[in-house]
Amino acid sequence: MLLSSSRSHSPTRWLSVFVISAVLLSGCSSSDDSVGESDGTDSGSDGGMDGGTDGGSTDGSTDGTGGSSSFAFVSAATPTFDAGQIERFTLGETIAAAGAYPATLSDITVRTNGSDVFQVGRLDLESITRYTTEELTTPVYQYSVLNEETAPNTYDIVFASATKAYVLQYESSNILIVNPSASSEAEFITGSIDISAYDEDAPNATSGVIANGKLFVLLQRLTGFNPVNPGYVAVFDVETDAEISTGMNSEGLNGIALTSLNPDTLQYVASSNDILVNGRGNINVVFNELPGDPYMGGVEIIDADSYVRDLLVDDGTETDNDGFFFASIQAGDTRGYVITSVGYQDNTLRSYNVATGLLEDGAVAGLESMDLTGLAIGPSGNLWVGIGGIEPGYLRINPEDNSLVGEKVDTEFVPNHIVFVDGGS
After folding, report:
1. pLDDT band at 423 (very low <50, low <70, confident <90, very high)
2. Which fold has domain 11-35+141-408?
3. Above 90 in pLDDT, residue 12?
């Protein structure tokens, strides 16, 4: 029997589950994605989906090249978090389920280096597993990334080249430097970067992107699970791994100080050379009961060269808001999207104007007060919206007019992240 990890796909989502469970139990006694997002750049028993005989969906605006070797890979978990798997879909005029890698524990996410698929095993797994797009049963390798910590909670892998990548670990004061092409586990970890200046115990690295030869790493800097310190973005030279002094801080640190509490994801927008940061604020205020206005999040924007930071979209105040910013992503140069949350699995998809930073009126495509799990941009520019519940999957939105594209893409488990890979001819 597969056992669930003690934490789900993010500390925030796990706490949300815990909070609602506690509330429900209390009530009974008296009467949780990259970056959800498409980053372009996460063994167990048999639990894969059947090959592409079902789950087909016509895509009027093709999210693929039209060839059978273009894929989407979805990391997903059962609603009870007792198992997880990466599911494969072929892209083209139709989108069809095409099997899955072996099921494992639930706390996983998926990344790609552009050609292969990497399963990031988080708490209780602490491993990086590499697969090809074609071979579903046998991985290229599975390497441990435990290093010095006993439970570092491996969170992300960011690729710099075929032989260099960075592994972010939530409960570690180091960023691991690894060789994704290593032929043995002994050759996998090649170095590390000390980030203890941001928090001696662990600065809570959650997300990373590479832009203009620099690695940008998002640090939550929570105390326990409490967002009492502003987040930071640390910047490193990819060639030397040395930290860059950005001059954008107030604590004698080299990184970029954020105004957001509890930031969770980064997105690099190449067309404007900006780094976008999603800040959730004190989304777990019901649990931690911290004083002050919990709406200390929003979408922040950082120039990738000057490091100048600004607040693009404000999440409001305790008395005037549309909910916490559970996830956000920019789709093209004029429109972005935010999943706003007013409670566990009570989320709404909103769009915003990139030029003004203002939320547009109403929910997008009727996606309101439901379990929305993450956001991604597909190969043709459509927005993919993760759907939870008893009929999980993805809905696709055309950013030009916020209309639905094609039919729902069904997944077997509840999705938390998706990447897109062209497997070649």
Report:
1. low
2. Methylamine Dehydrogenase; Chain H (2.130.10)
3. no
